[in-house]
Structure formats: structure tokens, C-alpha cells
Amino acid sequence: MAIVVATVAVIAIAAVGWFRVPDTGEEALLLFLDAEDATASCLALDPAVLAGMSPAFAGTVRSSDGESVVLDVDRWYAGPEAERVELRAPAGMEALTGGISFEVGRQYLISATDERVNYCGYSGPVTPELQAAYDAAYSS
Q1: Which residue in 42, 43, 58, 49 sits closest to 131, CA to CA?
Q2: Residue 105 half-sphere exposure toward CB, CA atoms < 13 A
Q3: What is the pLDDT of residues 88-115, one digit of tens each?
Q4: What is the DSSP-derived secondary structure letter of residue 95?
Q5: Strand, helix or coil for residue 113
Q6: DSSP type of residue 123
Q7: How many CA atoms lie within 13 A of 97 on its CB side?
Q8: Which of 61, 82, 80 is nearest to 71 (CA)?
């Protein structure tokens, strides 16, 4: 099952951003899919801009149930170092079209600024172009 998020959708970090995964008891970072986007005008992908975004990570979708997506973090580029991140969609957000389709087993690059992730070119499924931008932005 896939969750589709509109290109103007974002993720907001909750005030209490950690939770325990029910089946394992492991701690995970909790993020929410939101309808606001501070960068909705879609800036061209620029590694210099990307470098200021945190958290930033590569993750593989572990599960997707229509209301939430759980990613196993493969690599942290910036920010807290949880083993998992859960994305939760408010009611109705999972049905939006024109955005990212989260598929189980697929890897994504996710970045955020001011507690919001921009899906407008700075986050999405791993592609050679997006991976090169992350490598350039977060190399040190």
C-alpha cells in the first residue's frame, strides 16, 4: 500500500517527537504530515540550501498503512539519530495526489527546516540527482 503526499505537504516534528514502536518497544522519531509548506514556491534544488536543513536522513519504508509510514533510517545526514521515523498523515492527507508515493521497501531522502520537511525537490525517492545533492550538502 502506498501513501501519496501532495507536493505542498510537509512533515512537522511534534513537541514530543519520540515514541515507542509497539511491536519492538524501540524508540523512534515521530513526524507528522501537514498541509502547510514554507517553501511551497519550489526553489530549485541547491546543495547549499539543502545543507541548512535538519533533520536529514535516508530511510527505507518498513510499513505503510494508509495513515502512517514507518521508515528504518539507513543514514543520518543531520539531526537526531533515531533508528526509525514514523510519518503520520492527518485525516484526508493520505488521499492527496501529485506528490510522493511511499512504497514499502523503497528508499527515500528526507530533509526538514524549522520542523517541516519540504517535498518540493528536497525530499523524495532516492534518485542519482537527489543523492548527489545530499552527498554534496552533507559531506564533511
Answers
A1: 58
A2: 1
A3: 766 565 544 336 788 999 999 998 776 6
A4: G
A5: strand
A6: S
A7: 0
A8: 61
Burial of 40 (0-12, 13-18, 19+ CB in 10 A): middle
C-alpha cell at 56: 536529514
pTM for this model (two decimals): 0.74
pLDDT of 93: 57
Q: How wide is the angle at C-alpha 14 spanned by C-alphas 75 and 46, nearest 5°?
A: 50
Kindly report the CA angle at 46 between 82 and 80, in degrees rounded to 5?
10
Per DSSP, the three-state class of 2 is coil
Residue linked to cell 521515523: 85
Write b or e for each residue in 54-92: b if 16 or more Cβ atoms lie within 10 A of its Cβ, otherwise e: bbbbbbebbebeeebbbbebeebbbbeebebbbbbbeee
Q: Which helix (H) or strand (E) holds 129?
A: helix 128-138
> Which cell numbers in the block locate residue 70?
514507518
C-alpha distances in Å from residue 124, one per residue of 5, 9, 42, 118, 127: 10, 12, 13, 9, 8
